[in-house]
Amino acid sequence: MSFTSLAELLAAHGAAASAGVAVLSAPGALYRAISSDAVYVKNTLVVSGLIGEDGISTRLDLTAFTDLAFIVQAGATLELRNLTLLLPPLPTKTTTGSTASALAHVIGLEESGARVLLAGVNMVMATQSDLFTLTRTLCTPEDWRYGTKELQVLRGVVLYGNGTMLLGLSSDGSSPPPDAASALAILVNTSITCEGGPPPPPWACSATYVASADMLRSTAEEMLSGTAGPVLLSLTGNVTLQPDSWDGGLVVRKGQQLGLYGNPEPLRAVQLDFAGIAGAIVAESGRVLLRQLVLLGLPYPPNVDSPKELFAVWVHAVFTGR
Ligand SMILES: *[C@@H]1O[C@H](CO)[C@@H](O)[C@H](O)[C@H]1NC(C)=O
Ligand SMILES: *[C@@H]1O[C@H](CO)[C@@H](O)[C@H](O)[C@H]1NC(C)=O
Ligand SMILES: *[C@@H]1O[C@H](CO)[C@@H](O)[C@H](O)[C@H]1NC(C)=O
Ligand SMILES: *[C@@H]1O[C@H](CO)[C@@H](O)[C@H](O)[C@H]1NC(C)=O
Q1: CA geometry: angle at 148 spanning 142 and 153, to 5°?
Q2: What is the pTM of this model?
Q3: In the chain, what are the domain boundaries?
Q4: Which of 129, 146, 171, 266 shows the greatest Cβ crowding within 10 Å of its Cβ?
Q5: Where is the signal peptide (predicted)?
Q6: What is the C-alpha to C-alpha distance for residues 87 and 127, in angstroms, rounded to an integer?
């Protein structure tokens, strides 16, 4: 179903462009705005699709937009619910710098004090390369935060259980634009994939959580084998490696990165016990990052090749290429 503009599309389904509830009620159907005229949200605007029995939701096609599709004013609310959102290509020169956002070129704020929520939305990026770019920026090992279902990257698909994403800033406003910290959309039960279905490996990043040594081993190996970039694992409980079953080092190959994260809350500290296994993780020429973990069971070096090794106590659990 094509409409000359997004405003007309919404009006045809029960919402004045600036306010109200638009229900796009045909699961699987494609609702498309042809022009690239933005909708100014001045009040509360809810755009809701429906999820069919097959799990396919109503599709809202915004691919015609070359600039913001929704501009949300101060005090106003935009909610997108139970929709598949087809996104236009990422701008080549991204306005948000290096910050990962699939939305900043589609939804923008005019001033601070607006609220944007996406719940049950499946964002479809225009190309595999856009998804790759987004995921690579999202998965910076140094900035990754410990978590469980809040944010995961599984088989190339980004899954937000409950997170935030940077929005764009509209330059049309007369008042100063909002600072980046307040220009965030809340994402609940929202995923990001790309046109043509989930991307094939190798993926730009993989991230999830593990609760035991067995899970750590199997998840890390599976993810490392299909991922070109970082593999980021949060440890949700104390993990103790078993010398009998660990069976050789977990290998992080050239160009790969493995990040293991513990809970930063002081009373929820997570222990990673290497059980004295030397070379439990072998970073041939990849990188291993351990954050907010209490490391136990650190092995003594099997061979002391240089005086440096006598002091680098913890390093013997993780062998690096030399
Ligand atoms: C969205 O879908 C979920 C699950 O199918 C349903 O529980 C919820 O009521 C829907 N929300 C809206 C606003 O339609
Ligand atoms: C999402 O997380 C925030 C805090 O991080 C919390 O206040 C909010 O209730 C959560 N929402 C859902 C739907 O889980
Ligand atoms: C998220 O999705 C799950 C399962 O699909 C559902 O049980 C839950 O109610 C949803 N949460 C929200 C806030 O829509
Ligand atoms: C890990 O073990 C320590 C010491 O037994 C305990 O205090 C802590 O609560 C445990 N952490 C978790 C996340 O279970």
Answers
A1: 65
A2: 0.89
A3: 2-194, 206-319
A4: 146
A5: 1-17
A6: 9
